[in-house]
Write a sequence for this structure.
């Protein structure tokens, strides 16, 4: 903002205020007297420029962005640890510590049988790709097998500055309050392991409350047959019938949430259940015992990974063929699909485009592939639009 207040410009302006009859050349008494003051003034303008930049959310460095965000009640999403399912050949004590390559893991709880939850001791996403044998740090009698077999909840790094800045700016556009869509997004995205969410309000809106009202034939059947049914069945039907007859069944307050895991893939059953319990425990649906408001019945689901099968017609450079180039091509495809998945939450639906596939392969594999054309997605030479709750996943690739 103060680009015109540089040291040379300030010095020229100050000397310009003196009459030309005086000696203002470099080294003169006037020059020597004015120059140091202008140097300090130039530094002052630089500091003033930084203060102005730090005062606005859109330009503030991270340290000052955090201070401005506190005014909105916001803070960066902290780093979280990856949680795995680990399997052993014998029971292991909770709190047992193991190492896998350069990271350590601790057993936190039992899942079933000889399966346990193992949490990385170091938060962050670096552990997400780990799998394989665990080495016990402390001796466990009878242990011959210890292995990480499945990532349950992906670890996350602390929220990046630009992502947090955008979230703070977005808070001025939509106010999170009382179970509105912005409130659900804010609450769910703050949970460990969640990378994205779509909110579908009143997702069963195709149902008409009038259809729930029992007619005369239903009333007659209930009166004649209810007591002949097994007790549990009769109790359930009686509760539904009474609610319907009293006009207590409505379609309002239903919320469907679709999650994307923090690693950009479909979430595990464990993560879905964890979010469901935090928001609206199924055994107390709609009672407001979770983060969801009273009356909101929340259904949490995971995004679906849709297989994308590709038929590529490649022209190879000398000394290259499909077997030698396959790994590089698949790496390019995985990067493209990951980029699409990263924008899933903000898009109505994703589209896998042939032009993107071909251009990225040519750019990323230029040393091995000379040309590409006639690409087919799932057997058709056409772009593939995915469902609103689907992300692409590399299927079978033919080169």
């Amino acid at each position: 903002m103060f680009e015109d207040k540089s040291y040379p410009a300030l010095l020229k302006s100050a000397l310009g205020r003196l009459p030309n009859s005086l000696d203002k050349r470099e080294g003169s008494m006037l020059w020597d007297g004015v120059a140091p003051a202008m140097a300090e003034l130039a530094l002052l303008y630089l500091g003033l420029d930084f203060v102005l930049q730090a005062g606005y959310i859109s330009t503030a460095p991270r340290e000052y962005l955090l201070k401005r965000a506190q005014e909105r009640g916001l803070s960066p999403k902290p780093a979280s640890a990856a949680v795995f399912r680990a399997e052993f050949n014998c029971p292991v004590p909770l709190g047992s510590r193991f190492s896998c390559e350069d990271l350590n893991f601790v057993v936190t709880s039992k899942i079933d049988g000889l399966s346990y939850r193992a949490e990385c001791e170091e938060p962050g996403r670096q552990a997400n790709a780990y799998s394989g044998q665990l080495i016990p740090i402390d001796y466990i009698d009878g242990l011959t097998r210890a292995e990480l077999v499945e990532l349950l909840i992906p670890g996350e790094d602390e929220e990046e500055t630009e992502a947090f800045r955008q979230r703070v700016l977005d808070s001025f556009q939509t106010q999170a309050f009382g179970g509105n869509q912005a409130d659900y997004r804010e609450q769910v995205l703050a949970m460990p392991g969640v990378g994205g969410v779509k909110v579908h309000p009143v997702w069963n809106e195709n149902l008409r409350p009038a259809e729930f009202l029992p007619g005369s034939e239903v009333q007659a059947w209930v009166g004649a047959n209810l007591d002949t049914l097994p007790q549990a069945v009769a109790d359930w039907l009686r509760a539904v019938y009474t609610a319907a007859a009293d006009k207590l069944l409505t379609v309002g307050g239903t919320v469907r949430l679709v999650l994307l895991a923090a690693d950009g893939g479909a979430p595990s059953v464990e993560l879905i259940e964890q979010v469901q319990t935090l928001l609206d425990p199924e055994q107390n649906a709609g009672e407001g015992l979770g983060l969801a408001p009273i009356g909101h019945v929340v259904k949490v689901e995971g995004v679906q990974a849709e297989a994308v099968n590709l038929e590529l017609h490649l022209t190879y450079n000398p000394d290259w063929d499909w077997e030698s180039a396959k790994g590089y091509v698949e790496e390019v495809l995985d990067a493209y699909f990951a980029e699409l998945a990263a924008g899933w939450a903000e898009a109505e639906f994703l589209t896998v485009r042939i032009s993107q596939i071909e251009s990225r392969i040519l750019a990323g594999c230029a040393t091995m592939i000379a040309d590409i054309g006639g690409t087919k997605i799932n057997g058709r030479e056409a772009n593939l639009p995915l469902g609103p709750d689907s992300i692409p996943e590399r299927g079978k690739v033919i080169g």
User: Anything to note?
Assistant: Residues 15 and 21 are 12 Å apart (CA to CA). The mean pLDDT is 90.
